[in-house]
Amino acid sequence: MLAPEAVQELKAIVGEERFRTDMETLVTHSYDATPMFQALPDGVIFPCRTEEVQAIMQVAANYRIPVISRGSGSNLSASTVPAEGGIVMVMTRMNRILEIDQENLTATVQPGVITKELHQAVEELGLFYPPDPGSMAVSTIGGNIAQCAGGLRGLKYGTTKDYVLGLEAVLASGEVIRTGGKLAKDVAGYDLTKLLVGSEGTLAIVTEATLKLLPKPEYRRVMVAHFTDLEAAAQTVSEIIANRIIPCTLEFLDQGTIQVVEEFANIGLPTDMAAILLMEQDGPQAVVDRDILRMEEICRKGNAAHVQVARTPEEGNQLLAARRSALSALARSKPTTILEDATVPRAAIATMVRTINEIARKNRVRICTFGHAGDGNLHPTCMTDARNQEEIERVEEAFAEIFAAALELGGTITGEHGVGLAKAPYLEWKAGKAGIEVLKGIKRAFDPLNLLNPGKIFAKETRPRVVITCPETREK
Amino acid sequence: MLAPEAVQELKAIVGEERFRTDMETLVTHSYDATPMFQALPDGVIFPCRTEEVQAIMQVAANYRIPVISRGSGSNLSASTVPAEGGIVMVMTRMNRILEIDQENLTATVQPGVITKELHQAVEELGLFYPPDPGSMAVSTIGGNIAQCAGGLRGLKYGTTKDYVLGLEAVLASGEVIRTGGKLAKDVAGYDLTKLLVGSEGTLAIVTEATLKLLPKPEYRRVMVAHFTDLEAAAQTVSEIIANRIIPCTLEFLDQGTIQVVEEFANIGLPTDMAAILLMEQDGPQAVVDRDILRMEEICRKGNAAHVQVARTPEEGNQLLAARRSALSALARSKPTTILEDATVPRAAIATMVRTINEIARKNRVRICTFGHAGDGNLHPTCMTDARNQEEIERVEEAFAEIFAAALELGGTITGEHGVGLAKAPYLEWKAGKAGIEVLKGIKRAFDPLNLLNPGKIFAKETRPRVVITCPETREK
């Protein structure tokens, strides 16, 4: 519950209209895209300017009110659920593209800009902003920065982190800092820009970002390959990279995903195949054509049952449709869909997929796996029912084993979704005790009163570590 | 002075041979490549294994001994001068390339590996490690990581930060942390990997690094353009980028540099020119040839007095010789050479060079400017004499004005050399008071006893900010 004086002060900053405590607004901001996490905030506030964010933080500091900043809430780690109450600060009204600087190849934006709108704005000028998270039609750049969003183009182009050059951010104290700038090189002090990217609103509130743009690739082409054998598909991924080809996307769907997508979308997918690889290359046409030709040969040599190169952009889009509709298809099949993103070194993909299947069988849960094969970022997705407590416990056990397996293979518990609430109990498995202490020290340095998105990243209790032996490490 | 017990314990860890307190060794490790900074350490230690680094740090923590880790000491910000005494920890005996993983395109190395040796090792396998600092023939990867080294290829390929995927590091407490991994995507907690890169040995001691590799570019080609007019050269840089060409290097030499280099090297440079641009493109041959042709046209349209495209790799190397010998040439002309690296947004280069010349004239000092035009990272270089105190004061005033001017244009006080001791008095100009407090908080979180490279990055006193108005901002 907020003190009446605090409410009054907050209303004085933004006006009655932009500070809400009605139940409808509270419920609307009690959850994000993560299933099974929900908590009511005490208020919801909609700032329009950096100065308002500063003033709100000063009130929050005075009255010790937690502040959870968010954009569209499309994250998948319960990163914006107000776990300890407080005020949800919705950044969507700070949604202007302030500048696209064609000389310095930068865009300066407010945090509420929708990712896809930025894509369109820069592409009209022949420029390119590569990060393309699955939620890009609704996600905000501020949210992408908070979570360090990835996407399909990560293999060739990296993730959000690689495109944030500078930030304006409001600290827990209400003070403003400015980091970086329109600069390719800047080593003046520790890199606060990269530290804030992926910090999930726990260190500061981003109010402006300067982003790096690239020239837009001139040409793009899509191809697909079907495999009766999972190993052959994974081996083909490795062969492509070993041949020094870095396609802009290199996506993978396992048999379970293929079957569910076909059932949902009826687009003629081969439900008897063990795996589909989807590849796209972009760049100058001559290079794209050459790379596609070479990937076609590698797929054929790698025993693909079927290889198809799109002849037109429309055909390319059709081929990509299978991947694009994967999540929607999986989400329809059962009441609750849990989408994870355990990530492994690229060369360990086949082992990881086999391990996931083994874990699912053992725990009697249904998990389909698709994802970014090129960068080892897999999305094992569980179709379940949150109302079935007994099944949910088995699902949780299965995911704990999946995280343990990813770490066993040199991977991580989350490639692009973030820690939030959902993966906090597992973070120590990756970071180690000493690492967690360092992370907590950084949190304290920024936010000594623990007001910014409290309860996230750091769990009250670490889950006991599951011992898992992956097939590959077993063989050794 | 070290306590005799501490000396005994340190010798017990590494043996007599690898812990030195003789004057010759102390003097040898009292300075780095930065002129006018020197301080004697109390001892010099040469660890061979991570466990030794841990044990040394435990002794250092017990006896409150500062520890300054270093590689070859080729940095230009006095970042490895033992300003407050203590032990210099030389990492050059941990110099093995542990693995080059061709499936995951990574190299795992110890910190003492020489940058150029890594280049050679990966290039033999058709792979590529882009960071190429000027000192790469002697610099170590550990030093590159500590300073976030840049180089000539920064415009297209970024800097060291963009290639460090994971680290093993020893904390001030002696504990080990492991960050990241062979992973393109990893958002498990704040990004400690990127935070440690560029932290100049003040947060932890890097004992192992996993680096990202790229396929080696198939082909490369060099060209040069001479300009009678500085503006025309700068405008040409902007035009190249505006035409969506990102060359792998785009270097600039001003008239002063041209004259000094020609005097030194006698390679037929046109001493009457206001500027030379050197461009290199790499990639598939068809693309390189097309980009070179387009850059040639842009240079001609931009009123270049002379344009030459190298016909052979040997001719390319000859053209690059002017840039490569710039520092040596400048360094020979006077007893003391101060090489700075104020950096501005690319579009502000002409303004910045003009401002530098104006500042040099006003302060009656000789400054030549060359550097990475494509990424706005300039190296204004002052030829002076450290023994002439009156002149040195004018030099310092001039550099203070240059830093102020860079900031005025949206730039930074250091693009790739680091803060160290040399630029610590200016850091607050860039980071702001609130920013400095955040940076200090991070330092305290890692190193509460202030043992790791104390005195660096944070100055005892901030230099009063010079007020400078650049020609461009004056016109507004």
TrEMBL record, chains A, B:
Its cofactor is FAD. InterPro entries: FAD-bd_oxidored_4_C (IPR004113), FAD-bd_PCMH (IPR016166), FAD-bd_PCMH-like_sf (IPR036318), FAD-bd_PCMH_sub2 (IPR016169), FAD-linked_Oxase-like_C (IPR016164), FAD-linked_OxidoTrans_Type4 (IPR051914), Oxid_FAD_bind_N (IPR006094), Vanillyl_alc_oxidase_C-sub2 (IPR016171). Keywords: FAD, Flavoprotein, Oxidoreductase. GO terms for molecular function: FAD binding; oxidoreductase activity. The keyword Oxidoreductase applies. It holds the Pfam family FAD_binding_4. Residues 37-216 form the FAD-binding PCMH-type domain. Coiled coil: none annotated. It comes from the Bacteria. PANTHER family: GLYCOLATE OXIDASE SUBUNIT GLCD. Belongs to the FAD-binding oxidoreductase/transferase type 4 family. This is FAD-binding protein. It comes from Paenactinomyces guangxiensis.
